[in-house]
Amino acid sequence: MSEEAGSMLVVYDDPSDQRSLSLDDASSAEESPDETRLSLETSNDAIPYIGQRFATHDAAYEFYSEFAKRSGFSIRRHRTEGKDGVGKGLTRRYFVCHRAGNTPVKTSTESKPQRNRKSSRCGCQAYMRISKTTEFGAPEWRVTGFANHHNHELLEPNQVRFLPAYRTISDADKNRILMFAKTGISVHQMMRLMELEKCVEPGYLPFTEKDVRNLLQSFRKLDPEEESLDLLRMCRNIKEKNPNFKFEYTLDINNRLENIAWSYASSIQLYDIFGDAVVFDTTHRLTAFDMPLGIWVGINNYGMPCFFGCTLLRDETVRSFSWALKAFLGFMNGKAPQTILTDQNICLKEALSMEIPATKHAFCIWMIVAKFPSWFNAVLGERYNEWKAEFYRLYNLESVEDFELGWREMVCSYGLHSNRHMVNLYSSRSLWALPFLRSHFLAGMTTAGQSKSINAFIQRFLSAQTRLAHFVEQVAVAVDFKDQTGEQQTMQQNLQNVCLKTGAPMESHAATILTPFAFSKLQEQLVLAAHYASFSIDDGFLVRHHTKAEGGRKVYWVPQEGIISCSCHQFEFTGILCRHSLRVLSTGNCFQIPDRYLPLRWRRISMPSSKLLQSAPNDHAERAKLLQNMVSSLMMESAKSKERLDVATEQVSILLSRIREQPISLQGGRDSSSVNKNL
């Protein structure tokens, strides 16, 4: 050992209290200079010394812990002793380096296998010993032994904070984390928000993402039966506050919760307009309680996901799915969707055919594609991406004949004749391939963009898992957050100036009726229509691209009745007229799109105020939220023209003057915080 290193070696012992320096009988390894890194330099008054006194043993521990943190290690309580070991109380304590001692290897047994995880203990001999004394009357604790010689590397300041001893989550932070969990944000997002709130650099919170996940998991390790009872109490409490909240449940023969489903008043109102095409995602589980989770979602007139309902089931049987579907239809006053998209679940497929036989059932393409890596990656190897691109091409074809021919060629080209997944996909092709689905309304939910949007929307609920009893409330928070975000995006859409590209009267007319999202889809078709030629035939029109000499689409138009249809079935599929139909309307001197081809579900509509007022509860905060919705609608409608803005500004000024003349009640004063938060 060098002279400099030797001068830093600190080993003290009080001759009046001699004890063996061996801290663990199992550890007798001698320290060698080559294995040793000495403590970081510290000021002398911050280093423990023999004779140093503390009022309590806890005070001594805190002092040594702070010293250890500055030096690059942590400590733990090692051993306690009583005087002569017989009934004299605690008289001596040892605090040791966190790497003191050696962990014996656990031997696994057949009945209870053990995980031999790597231990950080390496027989380090650094320690501090304190002894209780009453030399000066009042009892106190004195340092009687101290060794600061480590046989391992000490950590730098930016590393030592990651030791378990220094990672703590305060009660205030715990409450903050649980509040964040209710909103459904990810653990990573929680960490970033708390770093911003505390004004600390990224990664410098006194806890890690793993600590947060462990905290959330600890709240889930609760008695399932007690949790189920709490969940029912929560639903009843919500129902008392808001009578328009709906829920149904079943109990098993042991009076335990079996299935439960629920929906919110706003969700039922949305379903009344946008419930024509629905995704029922049952591919997820509440992992803490091992319960299948089903979520009903759709797309609103602004192309944004909207929540319709939720269910937790005991199992994934035909009986459970049938019950969930009946409950959902009950919430929605018996109104079934035109189309429902699900996963490839045989039991769910059977339940759908039993409960809503008139509804078109289709498989979600993104749920199928998510399984491709495990199905085909190993089989196809380097050709996987090439095959996947060919699959998407076939999936998007318009003609069933082209699909059938292309599928056979793909199977031959990639040698997948006997692959069971390919066989199953082909046998169910009428449920997922677009050539078989184009005559059914899917609201554009099969496009890649909408698929990602809906999937991200669903993932928000999955991250909102702390306790089962609070899950209903957490989903409501997540839905409300999404609604508020949607309102902001809707307002941004409406405030954008619509850019007309064709100058056609049909375009300007549609721009005043459709939402910006829907209008942009129609506008694409209007622009393309100019590149098509139409030819009159016996029973309608033949429309094809001006560069093509053959083929085309057949369009049937009855001007007297305002009826038009195309063999491409785009209107039936998306609710937006196709380029072929628009070309025929333009050729026939039609200056406005017939009203029936501007569907209500794609129009600039807002919930009628009378309908909202009928369902509005008396709760002050809820009525404030209702007012917020009405103000949002006012902004949307007023932004459509300068004349509307002038009228709105004038009338709102008059209304504001009348409101200020009204007295402020005590109830209003008490709830002002919630009003401000909502508005």
Number of helices: 26
| Percentage of residues assigned to helices | 40-55%
Number of strands: 17
Using the alpha-carbon principal axes, give the shape. elongated
Q: Main sheet?
A: 7 strands, mixed
Strand content: 15-25%
Segments where pLDDT lies below 50 for 5+ residues?
Answer: 1-10, 18-43, 607-618, 666-679
Give the strand line-up of the largest sheet: 7-8-11-10-9-12-13
Mean pLDDT: 80
Class per helix and strand makeup: alpha+beta
User: What is the C-alpha radius of gyration, as a whole number of Å?
Assistant: 35 Å
Roughly how many Å apart are the termini? 71 Å
Function: Putative transcription activator involved in regulating light control of development.
Keywords: Metal-binding, Nucleus, Zinc, Zinc-finger
Region (Disordered): 1-43
Organism: Flemingia macrophylla
Give a nutshell description of this structure.
This is Protein FAR1-RELATED SEQUENCE. Residues 1-43 are annotated as: Disordered. This protein is an alpha+beta fold and 679 residues long.
Can you walk through the features of this model?
With 679 residues, the chain is an alpha+beta fold. 44% of the residues lie in helices and 16% in strands. The protein is elongated and about 115 Å long. The longest helix has 25 residues, at 471-495.
Give the topology, please:
Elements (H helix, E strand, L loop, with lengths): L2 H6 L2 E3 L39 E2 L2 H15 L3 E8 L7 E8 L29 E7 L6 E8 L9 H4 L10 H13 L3 H12 L10 H12 L3 H18 L4 E6 L5 E7 L1 H10 L2 E10 L4 E9 L5 E8 L5 H14 L7 E4 L3 H10 L4 E4 L1 H5 L2 H9 L3 H12 L4 H15 L5 H8 L20 H15 L8 H25 L9 H7 L4 H14 L2 E6 L2 E6 L7 E6 L4 E4 L3 H5 L4 H9 L21 H7 L4 H19 L3 H20 L4 H5 L1 H7 L1
